[in-house]
Structure formats: structure tokens, C-alpha cells
Amino acid sequence: MPEKVKSIAEATARLTEPFTHTVVGQVDDYCAYLSRFNGVYRFHQHARDELYYLIEGEIYIDYLGGQSVRLGPGDTLVVKAYETHRSRADEEALVLMFKAKDLFAE
After folding, report:
1. Rounded to whole angstroms, how far apart are CA atoms 91 and 36?
2. Domain locations along the chain
3. Is-contact 20 104, C-beta < 8 A?
4. d(Cα 47, Cα 103) in Å, to the nearest integer?
5. What pLDDT, on the 0 to 100 scale, is given for residue 5?
6. Domain 8-105 fold
7. Alpha helices in 1-106 (DSSP H)
8. pTM above the 0.85 mark?
9. Residue 16's pLDDT band (boundaries 50, 70, 90)?
């Protein structure tokens, strides 16, 4: 049986707090997470790569060494495994992230 179609609009409505997420799909051991960014998240790293796709707003991915990358709507960025980074947004932004399903447990 085919998987149920998921509505991005409905998933977005469930995201009421900054840096919360909801799974909108899974392929093998990777998930597509919809997340609302606002403010500054802590520096961290993962054992596997992750991809950011910005839907709306503007975010920055800051690296521990001082480099910062700006993403606008339609932009993507892959953060490689073990790169220490954080995300931040001066105003609310909507982000689709592709990452291994176990990365949020780290």
C-alpha cells in the first residue's frame, strides 16, 4: 500500500517552538525533518553528514573556526560529519533537513 501523502502546511502548523522538528518522510535510514529556526542553537557535531534546505526566511550556519554561511530561500548546504557547527536565525525560518534518523538522539 502506498504511504500517505503528508502536507508540509500541516506539518508547519505543528511547529510552535524554535528548533523543534517533525518527520515528513523517511528513505531507508535517512529522514526529512521540517524544522522551525529562530534564535541561536548550540554548537554541536554529528557522526554523519546532514543537508539543510531553506524553505523560507534566512539562516546562518556558523562553524567553530569562525566561518559563517548564509542561506536564503531555495539554498542548500551539506554539513559534513564531525564539523562543529550551529544554526541561527534572526527571525523565524522554515528549514527542511535531511539527516540520518538517529542524529537527533546525539
Report:
1. 10
2. 8-105
3. no
4. 8
5. 63
6. Jelly Rolls (2.60.120)
7. 8-14
8. yes
9. confident
